[in-house]
Amino acid sequence: LDVRQNRSPMCALPMACHEAWLKRPFHFSAGLDSWVANAVLSLAIMEFQGRHGRNPSTLLDPCCGSGTLAAMAAASGIFSQVFARDVDEPFLQRATENFAHFSTHAPLSALDVGVHDAATPFNLP
Questions:
Q1: Residue 103's closest CA among 40, 17, 37?
Q2: What does the CA dihedral 4, 79, 52, 42 come to, rounded to 10 degrees?
Q3: Total Cβ atoms within 10 A of residue 29
Q4: Less Cβ crowding at N or C end of the chain, within 10 Å?
Q5: Exposed e or buried b for every residue in 74-95, given b needs 16+ CB within 10 A?
Q6: Could you read off the pLDDT tens digit of each residue along the chain, which spans 125 residues?
Q7: Pick from 52, 47, 36: which is nearest to 10 by CA?
Q8: Residue 59 phi/psi, 5° resolution?
């Protein structure tokens, strides 16, 4: 607990989530480690809280790759919507396989997956 800000740690996923993600079907050599994704999410949430005084409701992962950041965000339960986008359709298919595997261990109902080139504007619902 951060007593100075009266805030709790933002994205503290249980060990079982990280262990389940390690068993995903598709691994990518440059893929983000689930613990690193957890730390990045915590920092982003803390920054958002500092600016807006509340938790964020939406997360956009514009280059989701194998899906680690999006999966951890969706599993956290903090976001009501998590958009996972990538320009590479085969990668997105592999990320979708990873999400399907991981969804047996963590709820991913907030997750919305789609093809998109991050160099162009995002038109999200």
A1: 17
A2: 40
A3: 5
A4: C
A5: bbbebbebbbbbbeeeebbebb
A6: 343 344 454 677 889 989 999 999 999 888 899 999 999 999 999 999 999 999 999 999 999 999 999 999 999 999 999 999 999 999 999 999 999 999 988 889 889 999 999 999 988 77
A7: 47
A8: -130, 135
